[in-house]
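Researcher: Sequence recovery benchmark, item below. Answer with residues only.
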């Protein structure tokens, strides 16, 4: 199974999928349009959360960073007057250094990800959507800015006028991802932000066309009762002209055969209703099991 992922909703589902499926049957493709270089190292929030989740290291209260990490480097840097847009944990920063040193020696992001997964004992195939730089850029009342500046520095409070993916035309999709897409594996679009997490993956050259050719593309809605569980999906969907409903999610994604929606959903298209809220590991495992059964029957 190929799973398209952002950094919160889909990782919650991966907690279950890694229990239910053989890791070698799973390819997780992570969005990299949230990535940014901080103090000399590449931070890849969604890719990191996917890897930490599969390694059993993720901080499950925040869905970013490593559980029980310390923040001494960040605090000391702050005291020196060096501000960083994200508050980085010490172990998290060690991962960014590990990755960026490999990249400085010539490795691409995919190769660096493979090395990191090997070091952390992650057996699921984890791939960044591309090795090329892509950035979600948010146009607001204060001008255009990257996602972290919009979401963390400005606390997601500015009104959103437009969203574009800088670098997407030049970026080439990861070859492992393309190979997997050309095979028989079903595709699961996880419950992630349809605009800034799944949007960049689908916008890569050739991906949407290949998805349209597949007969088993299933998407789990990130909405519960017409609201996102967390994050800026509602503002971003409105900025792209879609209603904040499961129909809006399905229309925006555009290549889905079957939607998995919450029990109260008013979605009228082809769908299966499940309890899609994941508050704990048991919820994630239950939902993952139901989805895997659904896919093996379809
Ligand atoms: P980001 O990269 O941190 O923005 O994370 P994602 O894009 O992976 O996830 C954000 C989306 O996950 C939001 O739109 C949420 O509504 C959705 N989400 C978070 N938790 C859950 C959950 O328990 N169930 C469902 N269905 N969606 C969730
Ligand atoms: N989100 C915050 O709201 N505040 C932070 O200080 C923060 C730090 C951070 C560090 C590493 C990382 O991988 C993610 C981090 N995030 C933080 C989450 C991140 O800003 C976003 O939620 C995602 O990029 C949206 O997909």
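Model:
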């Amino acid at each position: 199974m190929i799973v398209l992922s952002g950094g919160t909703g889909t990782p919650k589902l991966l907690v279950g999928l890694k229990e239910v499926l053989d890791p070698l049957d799973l390819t997780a493709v992570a969005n990299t349009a949230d990535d940014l270089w901080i103090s000399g190292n590449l931070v890849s929030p969604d890719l990191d959360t996917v890897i930490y989740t599969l390694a059993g290291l993720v901080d499950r209260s925040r869905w970013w960073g490593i559980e029980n990490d310390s923040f001494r480097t960040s605090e000391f840097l702050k005291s020196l007057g060096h501000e960083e847009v994200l508050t980085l944990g010490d172990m998290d920063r060690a991962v960014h250094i590990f990755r960026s040193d490999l990249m400085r020696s010539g490795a691409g992001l995919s190769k660096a990800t493979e090395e990191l997964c090997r070091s952390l004992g992650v057996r699921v195939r984890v791939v960044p959507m591309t090795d090329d730089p892509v950035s979600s850029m948010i146009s607001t009342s204060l001008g255009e800015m990257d996602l972290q500046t919009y979401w963390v520095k400005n606390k997601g409070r500015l009104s959103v006028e437009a969203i574009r993916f800088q670098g997407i035309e030049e970026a080439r999709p990861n070859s492992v991802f393309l190979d997997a897409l050309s095979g028989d594996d079903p595709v699961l679009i996880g419950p992630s932000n349809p605009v800034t997490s799944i949007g960049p993956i689908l916008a890569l050259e050739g991906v949407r066309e290949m998805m349209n050719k597949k007969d088993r593309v299933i998407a789990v809605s990130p909405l519960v009762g017409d609201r996102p569980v967390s994050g800026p999906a509602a503002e971003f969907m409105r900025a792209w002209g879609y209603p904040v409903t499961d129909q809006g999610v399905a229309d925006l994604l555009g290549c889905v055969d079957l939607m998995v929606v919450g029990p109260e959903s008013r979605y009228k298209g082809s769908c299966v209703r499940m309890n899609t809220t994941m508050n704990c590991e048991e919820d994630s495992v239950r939902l993952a099991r139901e989805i895997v059964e659904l896919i093996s029957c379809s």
